[in-house]
């Protein structure tokens, strides 16, 4: 666990989280997964069994020697509340340790309104009031830069927030640990617990939809950069022939997101007559699905741009694998004809085989990712969560 395995709060909560996310596991497998010595696992699990948190289950065959005993959780060990903040609503879910969503809901929200953060605090307080004493903490995902999960100071141009005191205000309102991060980083935290992060320690999570985002995971930890803004690949400047460079929400022009984010695709489709003046992205996807060659060409061109930009990120970071997520993957079959040749052609020979996995998407995944900030606290090797992660681990260990 990258230098933190000696800390008394990390090891018990790490074992609890591992058993909660993966199910019954042997001591040997726990030691291997968490990078702990077998003696440490034996000692800590003995205490967890005595406290009624963990129990011994059936034996399974082992490679020589006596059969291995599996360990499992003896009872429920807590839930996390996840909230995804958007420009017009807040999606909220309650997530069990194994990643299953117990409940979900949505609240109207105007981030530009006076007292918006107080309103967000009231929303989360109401949600927390409906939970029992097993709440481990609250995770919040926002479409912007966050200095750290621990402090939760947010710059989010799409929300109209500049140095917004999201973490401090919400912690005071809710009265529980609150971890805040960029929304794409929260999806990377979910992959750490339930997806490719189980087998790979370095990977990219790339989202396509309203914007283009990227989370960078290196050696099992989210890479944040100097100011918490690493991964803003949507603002890579692109040079495209034919016409003026489109304006971007960041204030610049010609950004990748300005071309292939949702607004960029709609603008292109309206300009080419594929959509009318009030046409939407849903209409563009419908046209492509129905065989409209102009609609399909727009997606293929977007895929080409994404492939070229992503190849540059691959050369910079050298991940083991890339995961594509977001609302835009619903139309991936139309992106792919442009993406795949452009991406592979732009890679150095040693990188041409990097896998790109496209995962199914549901609306709940953003908020589920936010909840994963809480549930992944035992694996916070970079210390991004600071005191908030420590408080979550203490609650896990006391469950």
From TrEMBL:
It comes from the Bacteria. Residues 15-55 form the HTH marR-type domain. PROSITE patterns: ROK. InterPro entries: ATPase_NBD, HTH_MarR-typ, ROK, ROK_cs, WH-like_DNA-bd_sf, WH_DNA-bd_sf. Belongs to the ROK (NagC/XylR) family. This is MarR family transcriptional regulator. It comes from Kribbella pratensis.
């Amino acid at each position: 666990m990258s230098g933190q395995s000696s800390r008394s709060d990390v090891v018990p909560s790490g074992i609890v989280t591992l058993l909660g996310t993966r199910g019954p596991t042997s001591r040997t497998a726990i030691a291997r997964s968490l990078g702990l010595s077998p003696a440490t696992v034996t000692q800590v699990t003995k205490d967890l069994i005595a406290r009624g948190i963990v129990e011994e289950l059936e034996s399974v065959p082992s490679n020589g020697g006596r059969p291995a005993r599996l360990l499992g959780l003896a009872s429920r060990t807590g839930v996390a509340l996840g909230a995804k903040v958007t420009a017009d609503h807040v999606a909220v879910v309650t997530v069990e340790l194994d990643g299953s969503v117990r409940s979900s809901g949505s609240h109207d929200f105007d981030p530009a309104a006076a007292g918006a953060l107080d309103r967000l605090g009231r929303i989360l307080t109401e949600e927390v009031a409906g939970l029992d004493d097993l709440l481990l903490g609250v995770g919040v995902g926002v479409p912007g830069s966050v200095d750290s999960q621990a402090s939760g100071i947010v710059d989010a141009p799409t929300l109209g927030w500049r140095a917004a005191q999201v973490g401090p205000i919400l912690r005071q309102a809710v009265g529980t640990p609150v971890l805040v991060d960029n929304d794409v980083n929260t999806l990377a935290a979910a992959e750490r617990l339930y997806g490719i992060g189980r087998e790979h320690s370095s990977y990219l999570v790339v989202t396509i939809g309203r914007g283009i985002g990227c989370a960078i995971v290196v050696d099992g930890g989210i890479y944040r950069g100097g100011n918490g803004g690493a991964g803003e690949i949507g603002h890579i400047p692109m040079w495209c022939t034919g016409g003026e460079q489109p304006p971007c929400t960041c204030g610049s022009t010609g950004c990748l997101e300005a071309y292939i984010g949702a607004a960029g695709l709609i603008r292109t489709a309206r300009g080419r007559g594929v959509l009318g003046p009030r046409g939407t992205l849903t209409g563009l996807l419908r046209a492509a699905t129905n065989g409209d060659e102009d609609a399909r060409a727009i997606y293929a061109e977007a895929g080409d741009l994404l492939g070229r930009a992503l190849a540059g990120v691959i050369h910079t970071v050298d991940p083991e694998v890339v995961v594509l997520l977001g609302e835009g993957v619903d139309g991936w079959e139309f992106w792919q004809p442009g993406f795949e040749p452009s991406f592979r052609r732009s890679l150095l020979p040693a990188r041409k085989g990097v896998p790109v996995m496209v995962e199914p998407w549901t609306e709940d995944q953003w908020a589920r990712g936010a909840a994963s900030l809480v549930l992944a606290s035992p694996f916070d090797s970079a210390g991004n969560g600071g005191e908030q992660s420590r408080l979550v681990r203490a609650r896990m260990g006391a469950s």
